[in-house]
Amino acid sequence: MIHFFKLIRPVNLLIIAATMYSIGGYLDVVYAPFHEDKLLVKTFDFFLLVISTVMIAAAGNIINDYFDVRADRINRPDKTIISKFIKRRWAIVFHWILNFIAFGIAIYLGLINDTFWYVFIHLLSINFLWFYSMQLKRTLVIGNVVIALLTALVPILVGIYYQDIFRTILLDQVFPFHLDAYTLFPIYLGFGLGVFAFVLNWVREIVKDMEDVKGDLVLKARTIPIVYGLSKARLVAIIFVIISMALSIPILLFWQNGFIDGVALLPLLFSAVSATISLVLLLQKVTPNRLRKINYSLKLTMVFGMFLPIYWLLLII
Predict the structure, then answer these.
(1) Which segments cross the bilayer (predicted)?
(2) Phi and psi dihedrals of 152, rounded to 5?
């Protein structure tokens, strides 16, 4: 059982769940005057949305390791689980069970909320994770873009959930003449965080490809480090880190104009510090140990940025 939990990467799954609850909790407080103190983040339906998303991510981790057994034996032999501790056929069984349950939840959520979005996004994610692990991961740029897009869908999914609820049940009765302005805010928030997650996850994928060159060569993968070399891959990573830092400029402008209190920007400051550390490390000579540090630093950058809503929530309450 312990090997199964290692296989699905529980820390990453907890980050996904915490991110969704962070965004949901913040939106609940923002809309508190309009929904009679009924926190949607505490409902069973929102829990189902979170658990289905986590299940698809867990299934994606399993299938990714399933197709990467040969490469992992070279890149990280001490962390290889499939075929060493868990048989390949059982890995496939676990993968499809998780996806089947998650897709069933998506159908249920789609029916009760009268929307096709949950089914579409879940089905898209399941298939993309399969094709990514089987083939797209080894293609130039496309694999990085796909996995970054799927990461960006996490906050967007929360935005869709809240938009649907507020549009169909709440705000159409309270603000009939300003419906779009109020119901689109969850989408704007989800999309903004999604863009942040997309850029950072893309650069993380490039850094991971730089770490995994030896194993990827065995699989004949066409990653950026293999096709263009480590120096150019590092340059691309540096550009993306700078772009991620530039994404905070609109929030800083709101702060400068007095719309946001300086204390509310504390997580953004931590995120900027972590991104700066990543940038400094990228400017130095590429070594396996340094690449691991960059990977961890980029993950912290993303975590601080995605937890910004929950920090704002704590300030509000």
Answers:
(1) 12-34, 46-69, 90-109, 115-133, 140-162, 182-203, 235-256, 262-284, 296-314
(2) -65, -25
* 178: confidence class by pLDDT, cuts 50, 70, 90: low
What percent helix, strand, coil does the chain show, rounded to 5? Answer: 85, 0, 15
First to last CA, the chain: 40
- pLDDT digit string, tens, across residues 110-169: 998 888 899 999 999 999 999 888 888 778 888 888 889 999 999 999 988 888 777 665
Residue 167: phi and psi, rounded to 5, are -70, -45
Alpha-carbon span 95 to 87, nearest angstrom: 13
Beta strand extents in 66-217 (DSSP E only): none
pTM equals: 0.83
Q: Of all helices (H) and strands (E), which one includes residue 77?
A: none
Length of the chain: 317
pLDDT tens-digit map of 61-95: 888 887 776 666 666 666 677 767 678 888 888 99
Query: Cα separation of 66 and 204, whole Å?
Result: 21
Q: Rounded to whole angstroms, what are the CA distances from 154 to 17, 92, 170, 187, 223?
A: 9, 24, 24, 12, 25
Neighbours of 263 (CB within 10 A): 8
Cβ-contact 31, 9 below 8 angstroms: no
CB 132 within 8 A of CB 147: yes
